[in-house]
Amino acid sequence: MENIIIAGGGIAGLVSAICLSKLNCHILVIERDQEKDERLNNVNIFESWKRKGVPQFKHNHTYLLSMYKFFSNEHPELVSEFKKHGVNLYHINEMLPAELRSKLIRKTDTDLDMKKINCRRPTLESLLYDYAKSISSINILHNVKVINVLGECNGSSIDVRGVVTIVDGEKKEFLGSVIDAMGQSSKFVSWLEKMTDKPFLKDEQLCNTIYISRHYRLRNGQSELLFKGNRNYSYGTDLGYIRFNLFPNEKGYFSICILIHEREKELFDALKMPELFHKACLSIPEIAPWLESDKSVPVSEPLYFRGMKNRWNIFVENGSLRVKNFYAVGDSHVMTNPWAGKGCAYAMHQAQLLRQSFEKYTDLKMRANFFYQTTLNHLGNIFVMLKKESDYFNELAESDYVNFENNVNLQVLNKKEQGLKYWFLSSYWLAYKVAVMSNPFLMRRIIEENHLIKGYNTHLREIGTVIKVLMYMFKGKRNNLQKVKKKLNGPNKSELSRLLDIKQN
After folding, report:
1. How many whole angstroms separate alpha carbon 399 and alpha carbon 499?
2. Could you give the number of structural domains in the chain?
3. In sequence order, what DSSP letters do the residues of 52-71 get, joined into one string?
4. I need a labelling partner for 86 at 20 to 30 A (CA). Which of 121, 305, 327, 478 fits?
5. Nearest to residue 133, comparing CAs of 3, 44, 27?
6. What is the CATH number for 22?
7. CA–CA gap between residue 457 and residue 352 (Å, rounded)
8. What does the pLDDT average to over 454-466?
9. Residue 25 belongs to what domain range?
10. Where is coiled-coil annotated (predicted)?
11. Alpha carbon 15 to chain centroid distance?
12. Is residue 224 located within the same domain as residue 300?
């Protein structure tokens, strides 16, 4: 039987192990953090499970439709555990605003597995961990640190054959196919580079964003259905200079996340303070009802992390494979701004591609080539688009973006552009926004693409989308601008600065 070594026991490592468990192989998951205390339940595990190797462990995570779809089809017993532990499972139609949801056709049998998992990361990771441990072909080692990769350079590529670890203070080697699931702090690329005189390429871009989140719990007797018949899986708004989102989690817990640009130092200092974070959230009409004193209480301080990158580590250069018997998954391979909510989805998607690669090929070179090329085909376009979104956010941050109309202009073209081309693109973008806001089928299609059910942004090139947008475009730019403005619920930059008593940049 083939030996598979997975370095990293977080979500990427666990879903890879679960996906590969149906193959005829031995799977060893190596995790440097301590083992989960089996006495913990999913309520206090949030505070008690120490995951030093996962800096974003307590931040909000988004788990896409594609993750539930896979578990529902191949591991229904795991889905039963989700339900047993109060994990919220929202159907895709429930992600639409109530006024659009009523226009959709009723759910069909082929639609029932189109659900999104909503829960705090410690809860999901705990359930994945318990499930993986129950599978006989998976063995999980804790308090073991991977310190190097075993292999040698063979011409233009490196042949990997295992890893070097520290177990109980002693060096120990493990041999087999190596999967890097160590996340953004992975050192595998630097270890591999020591075996060759040619560095590995990467496509990298700083996001320049700060991600701040805080957890709350509904009081006893309160329900997440605060808007009776008007439930959305996520509440929030994008005001250009700042973005808010609220995510209902399991058992009455919910989290509020805020995204700002690195240049907003005074705003960041304010939002780190619990009372000012709370005050800023109260300024958002969609969020404020959740925060009424008789409805909920905060259960954490504001948490933040920064220095995020859009990064793609390249293991196939100009058609030439750089490393065999080594597979990077999740943030170890592809990482984007966490606000896009794709990190765990990348890991889930690549875990399925891993299984396809191992099923399809025994030749190590063909197997790795297939894995990396298929990853590029499936995720490359998403990575490029999210890099462009980061460029837009950076450009917006450097501009005078108190005025909404400037936001619209920057979304489609540099402010200096003039003429017919500028008019058409800005008018088309506004009409597109209104079409999405007004058409439930178009909005649902975009959700499917964002959740990796269908090709990312493929709807933009379809004639049906173009016709819908042109219909709204002919209604006039001024009319569409007013409709989009009505959806912007919250203070502008100057108003929020005065509210929080901070100096505006």
Report:
1. 22
2. 4
3. TT-TTTTS---B-HHHHHHH
4. 305
5. 27
6. 3.50.50.60
7. 22
8. 90
9. 1-50+120-205+309-389
10. none
11. 15
12. yes
